[in-house]
Structure formats: C-alpha cells, structure tokens
C-alpha cells in the first residue's frame, strides 16, 4: 500500500510538470475511493437489454406451446414413461358429453322448446300461412269454367273452416309432440353424437375460429409477463450489486 502511494505521488508530480491534469484526477479518484475489488462485477448494457427480451421470448414461446398442446398431438405419444396428447383429443368424449348436457339443461331445455311452439305468435303465424295456402290451392284446383266470384266464395268458406278447426288441432298435436319429446327425445345425446362425429381437425377449426382472439391474447400476455420479469431481474441486480 505504501509502495502504491509513493508510486502514485511520483506519477502525479510528473503529470503536473507536463501540464497533463487528466491522469491527476483519475489517480486521485482511485486513491480516494479505492481500486475496484477483483470480485465486483457490473451489469453490461447488453445484458440489461437481453434479459427482458429473452424473458419476453420465453414467455411468448411457452404460452404459444401451451395453446398448441390444447389440440396437438392428436394421437398419444409415449415418451420416457409419460403419455403426451392434446387436451381436446384426449378428452373428446367427455367434452362432447358435457356440451350436450349444458345445451339440454341450460341453453335449450325441453320445456322452453315446448313453450316456444305453444306461443301465440307462432300459432298466429301458422294459421295465417295455412289460410293463405288453402285459398291459393282451392282457387288453383277449381275448374276454370266456374265464375271467379264463385271460386272465391268457395275458397273463403274453406279457409274460414280451416281457421276455426286448426287451433284446437294444433294444440292437440303439440301436446302429443311434447309427451313424445319428453320420453323419446334426448337432445344431449344428439349433440354428443354430432360432436363425436367431427374429426379432430374440424374440432380444432371450430374452437380456434370462436376463440382465436382470446388464444392470441394468451400468447401476447406470456410475452409481456416475460418482459416484465426480465426488467425486474435487471432492477434487482442493480439494487443488490
């Protein structure tokens, strides 16, 4: 230490003689603060930039892979004692059964369907359509030699008769249809069979077409979180260096 101090004084004296003061400030800074220890390290700017960038890349890639693993691989792959298969292909039957159950019990229950068929608006539309069809068919089927006024009287009489007889007939048919629907028709089973009939490629296209934006947001969120974690690592290093 004494040798370094003596050598430093000689160096400062020579710099002063040559009117070169920059090394004087450098040397005085070293002797005032002390030389940096051999084990001390500073974070380079490239490391400070790479940590958030690499973190964002890892976060995005991880979420991108997680989204792909929802559908792929279609067939199970056995690797080191583990079975790798997409969530949708692996649980396709359970997924189809749950979709059918939700549709039948919550979205389209049988009572709601029957109430729709029994609604006044639907009955009025049905009677109006039948009335128009009867008038048109009778006018077309009656022979042309009959006077037009007579054909209109006949068509109007038949249409009025149908309008009187149709509502009770429709109600009776709906009651029979309702009993048949409750006993024999199972909407959940129909939906389950329909979903199972789709190929895995079709299921993937259907799901991605519905939730493509949300799946893309998951990938972007992974990259953003990775970037934030990288920034936190840089901040923690600067605080505890």
Secondary-structure content class:
mainly alpha
The strands making up the biggest β-sheet line up spatially as: 1-2
Compressed to H and E, one letter per element, the order equals: HHHEEHHHHHHH
Which stretches of 5+ consecutive residues score pLDDT under 50? 1-40
Largest sheet: 2 strands, antiparallel
Task: Compile the SSE list and pairings.
Layout: H1 2-17, H2 22-33, H3 45-68, E1 77-79, E2 82-84, H4 87-90, H5 92-107, H6 110-117, H7 120-141, H8 148-184, H9 187-197, H10 200-240
Antiparallel strand pairs: 1-2
Helix pairs in contact: 1-2, 3-10, 5-9, 6-8, 7-8
What would a concise description of this structure say?
The protein is mostly helical and 241 residues long. 79% of the residues lie in helices and 2% in strands.
List keywords for this structure.
241 residues, mainly alpha, 2 domains, disordered N terminus
Folded structure, characterized:
By secondary structure, the protein is mostly helical. It folds into two domains: 2-33; 45-240, no CATH class. The chain is built from ten helices and two strands; from the N terminus they run H-H-H-E-E-H-H-H-H-H-H-H. It has a two-stranded antiparallel sheet with strand order 1-2. Strand 1 and strand 2 (82-84) form a beta hairpin. It is elongated, with a radius of gyration of 42 Å.
């Amino acid at each position: 230490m004494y040798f370094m101090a003596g050598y430093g004084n000689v160096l400062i004296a020579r710099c002063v003689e040559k009117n070169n003061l920059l090394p004087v400030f450098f040397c005085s800074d070293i002797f005032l603060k002390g030389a940096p220890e051999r084990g001390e390290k500073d974070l380079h700017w490239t490391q400070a930039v790479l940590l958030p960038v690499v973190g964002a890349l890892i976060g995005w890639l991880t979420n991108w892979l997680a989204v792909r693993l929802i559908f792929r691989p279609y067939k199970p792959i056995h690797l080191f004692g583990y079975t790798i298969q997409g969530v949708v292909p692996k649980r396709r039957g359970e997924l189809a059964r749950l979709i059918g159950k939700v549709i039948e019990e919550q979205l389209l229950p049988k009572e709601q369907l029957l109430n729709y068929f029994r609604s006044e608006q639907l009955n009025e539309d049905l009677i109006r359509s039948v009335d128009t069809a009867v008038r048109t068919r009778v006018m077309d089927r009656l022979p042309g030699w009959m006077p037009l006024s007579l054909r209109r009287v006949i068509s109007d009489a038949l249409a009025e008769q149908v309008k009187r007889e149709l509502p009770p007939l429709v109600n009776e048919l709906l009651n029979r249809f309702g009993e048949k629907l409750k006993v024999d028709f199972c909407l959940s089973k129909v939906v389950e069979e329909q979903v199972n009939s789709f190929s895995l490629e079709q299921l993937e296209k259907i799901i991605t077409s519905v939730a493509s934006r949300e799946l893309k947001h998951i990938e972007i969120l992974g990259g953003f979180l990775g970037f934030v974690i990288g920034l936190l690592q840089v901040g923690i290093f600067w605080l505890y260096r």
